[in-house]
UniProtKB/TrEMBL annotation, chain A:
Domain DNA2/NAM7 helicase-like C-terminal, first and last residues per copy: 291-387
Record InterPro entries: Coronavir_polyprotein_1ab, DNA2/NAM7-like_C, P-loop_NTPase
A GO term, aspect molecular function: ATP binding
Protein name: Helicase
Pfam families tied to this protein: AAA_12
Keyword field: ATP-binding, Helicase, Hydrolase, Nucleotide-binding
TrEMBL record, chain B:
Domain of life: Bacteria
Annotated stretches, region: Disordered: 268-287
Protein name: Secreted protein
UniProtKB/TrEMBL annotation, chain C:
Residue numbers spanned by region Disordered: 466-498
Protein name as catalogued: Uncharacterized protein
Source organism (scientific name): Streptomyces colonosanans
Domain of life: Bacteria
Amino acid sequence: MDQATRAILEQLPTLTHRGIVVDSPPGAGKSTLVARAADALAQSSAPCPVIAQTNSQVDHLVRRFARHHPHLRTARLTATEHTVPHDLQAHPGIQIGTRIEALEKTADVIVGTAMKWATVTDRRWPWAIIDEAYQMRSDMLLWTAGLFDRALFVGDPGQLDPFSAVETDRFQGLFHDPMNSAVAVLLANNRDLPVHSLPVSWRLPPSAVPLISDAFYPFTPFHAGSREADRTLTFSIRGMRTPTDEVIEHAARTGWALFELPARITGPHDIEAFQAVLGIAERLLARRAITTCGETPEAHVLLPGDVAIGTAHRSQAHHIRALLARHYPQLHGITVDTANRLQGCEFRVTIVLHPLSGRGDASAFHLEAGRLCVLTSRHRHACIVVARVGIAELLDAHPSNDPVHPGAASKVADGWEANHAVLAHLAGHTIDARAQYGRRRG
Amino acid sequence: MSSLDARLGVLRGTAPPIPHSARTLAALTANPTCDRRSLIDAAGIDKAALAAHLNLPQPLRKSQLALDYGLAFEHKVTAQAGAPLVPLLRQALALTLPEASYQDVNSVGSDDDKSSLQLRHAHTRSRILSAAHRRPSQHRTLLDHPVLHLTVAGHQAYLEPDIIAFHRDGVFHVVEIKSFPVIHGQSDPLKVDAALTQAAAYVLALRELLADDGLPPERVSDTVILVNPRNFTQHPTATPYKAYQQIKSLSRHLGRLRRLPELLDKLPPHTTLDLAPGPDGKPTRPRGELAAALATVPARYTPGCRHHCDLAFHCRTEARNQRRTAALGTKVRDDLAGIDTIDTALALTDGQLHPARDQKDITQALQQAQRIYAELQTGIA
Amino acid sequence: MSLLTSLLKMRAADTGNALRASQLRHLHLSDQPLMLLAMTRTGPAARPLAVMLGTDPHRPQLLVAPPSGSTTSMLATLADAVTAYIDACQRHSEHLPAINNKPARRRYTDAPQILVPNPQTVQHLKVLGDDLRFRRVDDQNPDSRAVQRLGHWLTYLTDRADIPGSAALIPMTSFLSMHWVTGQSPQEDEDLATLLAWIDPPRHAASGRDAAYEAEDPATHRPAGPATDAAFDNDHLAPLFDAYARARAQGQDQARTLEELERLLAAYLHPTWDLMWQAYTLLQALPEAKSSTRRWDHERTVFTDECVYLAQDGRPRPARDQAVAAAVRLARMEHGAAAFAAERAADDPFARAELRTTGEAFGGTVTAIDSKHTLRGPTGRPQWRPRFTVSTTDLLRMEPGQLLACHAYRKAGYKICEITPADDDTLVELEITAGMGHADRPNYDVLPEAGAFLVFTIAPDPYRMPEFPARDQTPWTHGGPPADHPDHSNEGEGEEEQ
């Protein structure tokens, strides 16, 4: 636990404001803070509700409570449609229930999704913790805010903004725009609330922090908690001098690599790129990658569960998973998902299909800073980006006549600029997918 | 005259150049990769005249009623030496601006005088620099009808912002008066963007002016004030906007204009878009010849072009004749992933064309769509 | 839009004729819709220039606002016409018995349906409603009440138009584009004249493409509003306005100028008026989709509620939504969109075909059925979960665990158990998870027959409307309860100033 976390925890019991916001960049110890705060706030007379945004986030938190805070009686409030993972079902210290009545009398901490908490009525507790509060749409906060007197809001301001499938322009400019994040609306209506930020990323390696901080967190910069020497990624099997070998070796050395495929407009379903992504994952595992890390200095052999493949579109993730299931049985256990669903997750190595790869033009969706931020900030050791040549030209060609609404300035970095920053950084880490070994571009 | 100027002059022909304005600069950001537009604007060619000679519809023609209304609103706002403006700016910038000296740069030189732009620019420049150099506590200035310079592809473009406000924190603000309304706090977001992109040109010009005199460009704020009619009245209201994005993207697109020589190199020698006006001033250039000359400069047509380019209908006809997918909209163009023409796409779909290696994925998807549609037609699905 | 639509767009561009997308009409179409064209004055916000409206194609009513001075009398006439139409929908009502926790109630058997040319007209009416509903009511002047009431209805109708699947106020270009695909871009489809030329070309035209080209001719083309084009402004309106102002200044009779203006606008609007009825006839000929009845029933419920609100409270809706109202509105819009999409997929083979090309559905033939399959439930009791296999040649972008719906058995639910790629096709093993009843009282109807061709779509997420807090319970996070009365942002700034 770092200084900043300790200072926030000390403040909680005597807080005179009704809320407190903690901005937490990737891997800055958000879960630790949430768990400690819940421990501190759970009182004998009243449980502390914890409101997260997705079922997997809730399951993750519950698991953490059970492991690190075994003295707390933890309850999992769940919807009937969701199947709670077996390890949690089997855990003796965890109560699982679909109705609040079954849990509120006996639990210290009750964890559930905002969607589920919105169905709870006629209750009010002294404190609540809202996790991933920047992912939470403010209307969800409206449905749940009656449940607590005070609340701790924790979240990552660099992630994806909430979205809706319907036209929401009419709400623009409202202090309570239901499309804004819970934190944005909370602060617009309560300008005096204290806002803290956690200044250290314990997840991201020193190779990643300056870029991610500058490109995506211009308003809440942070630094790395680990030293360069703390994080290593090596291979116990020698490579075959293919571009794929080169790309993973480069990433192992520097923390970054861009695997560059020849320019081509492919649309979202670029089979060649999908195969490149899977090929990289395969080589990583086939060469028995070994990681060490300051906290656990003993060597760890990289397993499928340590690797994630990130995409922009769901259909891309589906496609890659289908290819994986069919042709790469040895990769079973790798996470393949969209930026949306990878929010809040952590892996040792990530392989990212660049959102702009193979596109004919950029669009607001593909340019969104949060999307690229999520994809490039999930890793502890290395991030390998796969992209087709031509993204810089795509960015230049992007018309910049987006609609403007008053008061729309946000905490989030500008996507166009952030994309350029990441691209400029990757230029020094580019491996040409067709090149002979040892002839690195850039 | 530089060789670039000479080459652009050949492209333009006999007509005098039309200088860049904030409006044409703003259009740069709407379709930045259209080389045709970049070259024609850089050469100062009258696009409306080209369009008229080619018998094209003129979607950008200005309505006299709109102009009159805009002018009436502007007069209302700047009446009595800017009196209605001061309290609005005070509120929009949250500052104490008890009174302001108001200077109408228009009064320098007469409106018809050819040299008045240069004169007004000199006047603007001296006013701005003297305000900027004096002790910051004394001055609040509203400069009406100022004239600024901006270097665009090596040329001086004169720009005429509505108002420049200077206040005692030593910061300049660009103020734009626009006649579209703010209704219950909301405006047409596309009109706002267009206004801010124009304002971005003024901000850049003002920064250039300060920098030339060794002053820090940050003295020009990226907060721009739009003054609009409020609700259903002609009462003005002022709204501050962060124009950071527009400023950044415009300056980036201006930087790209350095590619002009490269674009000119691609043209056949002696290519010109001259209308060859006869003694009566009427164009005599054969239309076919003009269209052929235009065709040597590649365009990037999208259906959205009609909102900002006089030549949109010409480029549309061209795109349709070439059966380009882009003429059907960005969605179709996106869906077809790099297949440029309808003929290729349909031939691949119908199996009349063997897909190249990099067309296999899209061909498979198109053929599946075709199969599903056929099932639908025969009532299987 | 899907790859299928893109393909059809290319086919249409290739042949020069529009293609039918959906065979079904997804919005209820009234026997007597109120057709309404609105033109706005260039310049001032929401100042009307003219309105043409009516329920009879042969007898449109034309209302023209004077070039300067008050528009109240013109608006009052408009208000009378619109209100008379709306009142007529309240003539009959039906009894709805109590269900669940809702008490028995009455509902009007009809609801207003207003057809306008395009989304821009909807936007114009919204702004007009924002103006008029805050106008002060002057008891001395009966017109003022009518005008305020018109503002109220315009706000109601334009709010409804934001809800996907609502049929209270429909822009014709969007309505047509739901059912036909043309060979021009979506931007060009926003023009009623060219869109209709593609879909239903005049007899003399060789193709829809030729007809559209002809319809674009600046000499004859009339924009469907609400904005007038610059040429019309400069060449026709401006001179008349000048003449009107001169006559006014010199104290002369303005009646002749007004008559001329009326003639001018009648001629300007008539072509669009005829196109609207042409479009109406085309749409009316389409068979109505099954679920559109449910949506129209809902439309009538909402309309009845609004009438009750007007009778009991009647205060104008606030200019901008308060916190709770905004969240409720967003929930309704999202719920409406999801329900409309799900119902279209269930009703319409074309909608399903589109989903198949986007990977949100697949179609195939039932090859094997395991009707006896059971699972052990959480309590240990066996549960009947029949399974069957579907062979599909669609590109499958789904995974085991995916929940599905099927148009043929609307109450059933399915889950993908296993996907086995074969040489030419893919075998998908499905389990029926809902709608099959219990093992002791099974519902065999949900079991498909071997050889049947079925399309399975991704099941819509289960959605529960959250319990909305009352306005005076707005939590502190959202600024607490708002001030008591909706704000009158107009502050009596009268229209007369313009």
